[in-house]
Amino acid sequence: MKYDIIIIGGGLGGLTAGAKLSREGKKVLLIEQHDRPGGCATTFRKGDFTLEVGLHEIDGPSPIDLKTKLFNELGLFDRVEFIKLPEFYHFVNDNIRITIPHDPQEAATILKKAFPGEEKGIDSYYSQVLNPKKRGLTSEAPVGEMSVGEFLDSIIANENLKLVLLGNLGYFHDDPYSLSLTYYCAAQSRYFNGGASYIKGGSQMLSDFLADYINSHGGKVLLNHLVTEFITDNGELSGVRCMKKNKRGEKVEEAWADEIIANASMPGIASMLPQEKSKILLGLIGDKKPGASLLTVYFGFDTLLSNIGNTHYSTFVYDGSVKSQIDILGNNKGDFEKRSYTFVDYGQVDHTLAEGGKSVGALCCIDYAENWENMPEKEYNLRKEEVARIFIRRLESIIPGISGRILYHEVATPLTIKRYTLNPGGAVYGFEQLPFNMPVDTSSVAGNLHFASAWTRTGGGFSGAIYAGYFCALNVLRKKQATK
């Protein structure tokens, strides 16, 4: 069948592009290999528990947020509710426990009280974060081309303060000394300028809305189908072939379109392109590397954790072996007994995720596919259970009594993420966001191939993927308008 646009992948980037293009009257086919839309913006059900796959918080939506403009266009706020979060994060290490609010002035006041003598550095930090385009604060080189680690070292002496400010580093990257300050500030500023929210009922509510929008506006969302190759006509991309997952004996399906959008990794798309076009895309990618992945332990509890004394929505725990920024990367690659982690208590904000007074939570840390590859299945499963026991024991020291309230737990590794997203290494944020990192201009690969994912210039996270989808849709619409 012929469509105006085919979208490969149903993560937030593809769904956003598809919904925007459907609103503008384009006939869209979106093909997703999973049994539900959303990519990392999904939930799954276990007994009384709805488990959130990836979302801890989404910045905004605020009145000045591009997401707000898009969501208003689609009428999304009539069906999807955003719960404002009570705080940015709670930070814990051997030396300090401190809660950082979303309000930047309030946050600065709290930090100045906790770290006397660092007032100037704290002001410099918030000045830069709240004005991400600001340059030249402390260095002859533009501040925007420094790493986050270099920037913090240039304005702050106290190592504990640097670690507190880097509490949510795992939202972006695994190493402050190789994370672009420009990228970090652009993303971090949205949390301080617009607060943050959790989607009531889980991120699947957002993904389902966008998929329903496409289906109800003349398009089609095809689940459980894997795109295997591109169809070419005189050397140009003209469609795709896909196959229903897990049923290899079925007939291959074909679809054609004038424009094709890839909501997928660039290395993955390169592997499906005709040889010459694949060579061009791989050349453009060059030595760019996929970013880190994550390990997550999902929990179902028999009570609200507030009943046993937990008062925080998200707690970032840095192990005592992390004395300074330089220790962070090694810790992220080290033993799970000491690896820093985040614990999210969803019961603090959304009681609809569990039934009968129960609640859900998730523990998450940076991880890498190489730690899990080439294991026999039995060894792999035993290792997952061992890691779960390690983190349950460590959680007990932060929230006494929590281990006795666990009814359900399950571990997802980077290989789990790789299986459901097809991202190399289970990368969750696209390419590493390094200083001087230039986005990949894919226009020379094929004039009708577009990308809408974390692998583009907007980067990862929920907002990054949504922006990628929105900008991609606008580019397709402009192209269509120009050729009329």
Structure description:
- By secondary structure, the protein is an alpha/beta fold.
- The protein has three domains: 2-41 and 203-288 and 430-482, FAD/NAD(P)-binding domain; 89-196, no CATH class; 293-367 and 373-412, no CATH class.
- It has helices at 12-23, 66-74, 104-114, 119-130, 148-155, 159-165, 181-194, 204-216, 266-270, 275-285, 328-332, 377-398, 414-421, 461-482, and strands spanning 2-8, 28-31, 43-46, 49-52, 58-59, 82-84, 89-92, 97-100, 196-199, 220-222, 225-233, 236-244, 253-262, 293-301, 314-317, 341-345, 359-367, 406-412, 449-451.
- The strands form four sheets. Strands 1, 2, 10, 11, 12, 13 and 19 form a seven-stranded mixed beta sheet that branches. The chain has a seven-stranded mixed beta sheet with strand order 8-7-15-16-17-14-18.
- The protein is globular.
- The chain starts with a strand and ends with a helix.
- Mean pLDDT is 94; it is low at 136-142.
| Helix-residue proportion | 25-40%
* Helix and strand composition category: alpha/beta
Alpha carbon gyration radius: 22 Å
Shape: globular
CATH architecture name of the largest domain: 3-Layer(bba) Sandwich
CATH homologous superfamily caption of the largest domain = FAD/NAD(P)-binding domain
Mean of residue pLDDT?
94
Q: Which stretches of 5+ consecutive residues score pLDDT under 50?
A: 136-142
CATH class of the largest domain: Alpha Beta
N-end to C-end Cα span: 23 Å
Q: How much of the polypeptide forms β-strand, as a percent range?
A: 15-25%
Number of strands: 19
* Major beta-sheet overview: 7 strands, mixed
Number of domains: 3
